[in-house]
Amino acid sequence: MEYLINYFETIPSLHRSALLVGGIAFFWMLESGLPGRLMNYKKTKHAGLNFFFTATTILVNFSLAGLLLWLSDWTQTHQWGLLYVLSSIPFWAQVLIGVALLDLIGAYFAHWSEHKVKVLWGFHLIHHTDHEVDTTTANRHHPMESVVRFG
Predict the structure, then answer these.
(1) Least packed by Cβ within 10 Å: which of 12, 35, 49, 84?
(2) DSSP state of 132
(3) Around 145, how many Cα atoms within 13 Å sit in the side-chain half-sphere?
(4) pTM above threshold 0.70
């Protein structure tokens, strides 16, 4: 477990990219071979548009990365935040609570608010208007969604 934690704390960008691209490629090929799944559209043209949305989102995320690093350094320097509050409980409990809160706040609540708040729905609608849902749809997001989730 310690090895995995150390690996993912220091994962090289090349490995992270390979996991993302490899995963998308694997599932894209897998879904193409599923029986009963008709691909009555130009899969590469469709993927091109979705990859455009992915690329613009990546650019926004890279722009926000510097601020995220600065905030991480600040919280570590000032020993502020959830990690310091939970430091007295066992490590496995810290991981469990941390993942649960990240999933609740960073994923569920952000997604819920994108469905409920009209201006956010306008951005999130890009994801839901894909006429041909496939693996590439998972990464079809308006770049402003990254800003919303970052905040």
Answers:
(1) 35
(2) S
(3) 25
(4) no
CB 17 within 8 A of CB 125: no
| Alpha-carbon distances of 22 from 5, 17, 39, 107, rounded to whole Å | 21, 8, 21, 23
**C-alpha separations of 89 from 75, 83, 94, 112, 148 in Å:** 19, 10, 7, 31, 32
- The per-residue pLDDT string of the chain (151 residues; one tens digit each, 9 = 90 and over) reads 788 888 888 888 899 889 988 988 898 888 777 766 666 677 788 888 999 998 999 899 989 999 989 998 999 899 898 878 888 899 899 889 989 998 998 889 999 999 999 999 999 999 999 888 888 888 899 999 988 888 7
Which residues 6+ apart lie within 8 Å of 84 measured at CB? none
CA distance 141 to 122: 11
Residue 68 exposure: Cα atoms within 13 Å on the Cβ side: 11
